[in-house]
Amino acid sequence: MRQFGIWSGAALCALVAACASPGPETQPLRGDLLVSNVRVIDFSGEAPEVRDNAFVLIGDGGVLAVAETRTGLTATVEQDASGLTMIPGLTDMHVHVWDEAELGAYLSWGVTRVRNMSGLPFHLTLAEQIEAGAVMGPHLVTTGPILNSAGPNAQVNHQFVETADDARAAIAWQAEQGFT
Question: What residue range is the signal peptide (predicted)?
């Protein structure tokens, strides 16, 4: 019994010492932009949550952290957003992008992702340029050309099919090209 008391006392001392000793220092989380004092509307849970005076660290193309304090957050640039509200980027699931010039308008309204309908091969190139950072615009996902038969509502931007085999071949071609 005396041996149990010695071992349990030693274990208790080791536990207290381990809890009291400082652990390894954590490195600050570093990003490109720290938005401070902003109201954040967070839709990641079951119900939207409003966080006032939050700190949002942005880098590597996205949000790295949302925190109640700036502790452990560093950035190249800090922007005070007192009185402003931040929400996640919006997605527009049905757009018709006709020109690169219109892409900035989506971003200015908080639309960070679009699904282009009735796409053409230049949309695939444009999407690659956006992802590479060569063109400023929302993330672009595009369908292929509309499948249609020749007739009164045929358009120059349609892909013409007359049979089921034509349709299957057109769909295979669109998938091969990278249309979604």
Answer: 1-20
- CATH fold, domain 29-86, is Urease, subunit C; domain 1 (2.30.40)
Options 3.40.50, 3.20.100, 3.30.110, 1.10.10; which CATH number does 90-177 get? Answer: 3.30.110
pLDDT, tens digit, 9 for 90 and up, residues 36-69: 999 999 998 999 999 999 999 999 989 999 999 9
Sorted by where each begins, the domain ranges of the chain are: 29-86, 90-177
Q: Can you give the pTM of this predicted structure?
A: 0.72
Burial (Cβ within 10 Å: 0-12, 13-18, ≥19) of residue 18: exposed
Average pLDDT over residues 76-92: 97
Q: In the beta sheet, which residues pair with residue 39?
A: 85
